[in-house]
Amino acid sequence: MIRKQRIVLGISGASGAVIGVTLLRELAAAPDIETHLVITRSAERTLLEETDTSKDALFSSADVVYDNNDVGAAIASGTFRTIGMIVAPCSMKSLAGIANGYSDNLMLRAADVALKERRKLVLLTRESPLSAIHLRNMLELTRAGAIIMPPVVSYYNGHVTLEDINRQIAGRALDQFGISIPGFARWA
After folding, report:
1. Is 17 exposed, middle or buried (0-12, 13-18, 19+ CB in 10 A)?
2. What's this model's pTM, rounded to 2 decimal places?
3. Which residues of 46-58 are buried (b: 16+ CB within 10 A; e: fewer)?
């Protein structure tokens, strides 16, 4: 029996909830991936403000959903094997918590676990402009092994709809884990 690879998806309260929704949809379509989802309370609000996706619809797309207050959940332990974690979008508050080891909720603890276990941690940071504090936190996380990947639009691929752009951003993030999705355009 081939076991599915586990990946953790965290969604924080930064603007850009649709990126997390797109990632979860693409991961749900990958037959060899098991998705473990954790979202913050702020993310629940942003989801309502920015998308037509309900919390229940989002949760039904994940294999496992965790309460962000349950710091004793499986993804809080390094012995729970995953291929890593994506936080999309990643707020500056979450970035600061991860950068400073302030794991006061499950999403931050799961990110801390990814770092300490030397697993991939991809953070789709959302803020503009960036302060020196934001940049310092990004530098510290890069030095610790995280991948800082702001959801930057690529113009070379001819995508014209917002859905195309979001899929391209999701594809770039998943590419870090060797996961390919349909519609992801590479430089020819």
Report:
1. buried
2. 0.95
3. bbeeeeebeeeeb
Q: Quick: pLDDT tens for 83-124.
A: 999 999 999 999 999 999 999 999 999 999 999 999 999 999
In the block, residue with structure tokens 């508050």: 93
The residue type at 65? V
Nearest to 89 by CA among 58, 47, 132: 47
Element (H, E) at 88: strand 84-90
Query: What contacts 128, CB < 8 A, 6 or more positions away?
Result: none
Q: What digits encode the pLDDT tens for the residues 154-164?
A: 887 776 789 99
Helix, strand, coil proportions of the chain in percent (round to 5)? 40, 15, 40
